[in-house]
């Protein structure tokens, strides 16, 4: 009787599939194109999608969006949620998936936070005494 060997290492499990990542990228591209060409809601004209994450079972897609400075992110989120059925039906036609993922939208605040930190750093630099920049310290 011949014994079969199991070559998988314990605890590693199944390797992560890149398919959700590919689908997430396709979702972002399709939604961006859809916003530029089809959507007529004025609130969504200057919205852009920064990233997406699709669940491993491909049932849920989280999509992060950015808005121009001064725009009402809450109103834009509401408009995106209102248009999600339209977005899903378009994705179903173009992406050729068995099941189109449900879309959840999130306001991406990373760029706003980076801008806020940059303002703080500029303020700190403007308050430094003038003599600290060019003198001493042994930097070289």
Structure overview:
It is a single chain. The chain is of the alpha+beta class. It contains three helices and three strands; from the N terminus they run αββαβα. The model is unreliable at 136-140 (pLDDT under 50). The protein has one domain (19-128): GMP Synthetase, Chain A, domain 3 (2-Layer Sandwich). Helix content is 43%, strand content 14%. It has helices at 19-37, 73-95, 110-127, and strands at residues 48-54, 60-66, 102-107.
Q: Low-confidence parts lasting 5 or more residues at pLDDT below 50?
A: 136-140
Approximate shape: flat
Give the strand line-up of the largest sheet.
Answer: 1-2-3
The CATH architecture term is 2-Layer Sandwich
Determine the CATH superfamily. Answer: K homology (KH) domain
SSE series: HEEHEH
TL;DR?
With 140 residues, the chain is an alpha+beta fold. The chain contains 3 helices and 3 strands; from the N terminus they run αββαβα.
What's the arrangement of secondary structure elements?
Layout: H1 19-37, E1 48-54, E2 60-66, H2 73-95, E3 102-107, H3 110-127
Parallel strand pairs: 2-3
Antiparallel strand pairs: 1-2
Helix pairs in contact: 1-2
Features:
GMP Synthetase, Chain A, domain 3; single chain; alpha+beta; 140 residues; three-stranded mixed β-sheet
